[in-house]
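Objective 1b. Sequence-to-structure analysis of Multicopper oxidase.
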Amino acid sequence: MNFHHASRILAIFSIAIFFSLPLEAATREYWVAAEKLSWDYAPSKKNLINPDETLGVWGQTRIYTKYRYIGYTDSTYTQPVSQPEWMGILGPQLRAVVGDTIKVHFLNKTDRALSMHPHGVLYDKDSEGADGGKGASIPPGESYTYTWVVDKDAGPGPDDPSSIVWLYHSHVMAEEEMNLGLVGTIIVTQKDRARSASDLKPQDIDQEFTALFMIFNEENDEESGLKHTINGRIFGNLKGYETNLNERVRWHLVALGNEVDNHTVHWHAQTVLKHGHRTDVIEVLPASMVSVDMTPRSPGNWLFHCHVNDHMIAGMSTRWHVNTNSD
């Protein structure tokens, strides 16, 4: 072996080692405001699942006052972070890798006390966002910085995919708080599987989608006010779930709500893997979180819905589109 050949092999080997090294632990900062606004459960004013049918009683009133978490680029809270259309009512997606620290600078722009309570990550009492502590109830107009540590117990387990999902939501414990709309997700990636220090998506997938299945109770259990939603939309009004044939897709599925929020999430024309088990229906209960993988095998515009019959009838459906190729 000559010198130049040996040097080339050594260089390639060094590059391979560099790209396989885990990322250094970092502090990930996010600026999030709670804001009060109007929310339209069906912006098209139409039943986009069955165009020959109406929105039924669930379309009698489409627009309600909601509260949302809105992400901003910095401490001025002037430039919102853009979100894909499919995220709907969800707050900003907070990302980290195992070993990181998440700092969320929370500003309450609303008219009531609110908080941010995370699942899965490590925190002290003041950053719990619930049940006492400085961050448990942030008054209107005030701010608080939550510090959450992404330790190994917040990351994917031995049988999990390379990224998993956790919920965050307000937890002041007012009776109607779950219906306000204040909910978002945290995505944690294994330390050695992130694409780069700035792009924390896993290397082994092409796309990630998140779906919140929840019945918002707007009118004291009146049927017309029970909005059976995916990310806050009904009857196909959630758009943007678009992927390509044979790409690697990870779905992060979450649920919140009450005892009626027992959902069976179903994709037409596709199966998913959950801990090595092949299925096309995933069960979610209130405050549950699960991440599953798929590789779309059939092009088309397919139904994505809850398979509980009452929930389907009430509009807990949308569509996911598979293009024939990735060109």
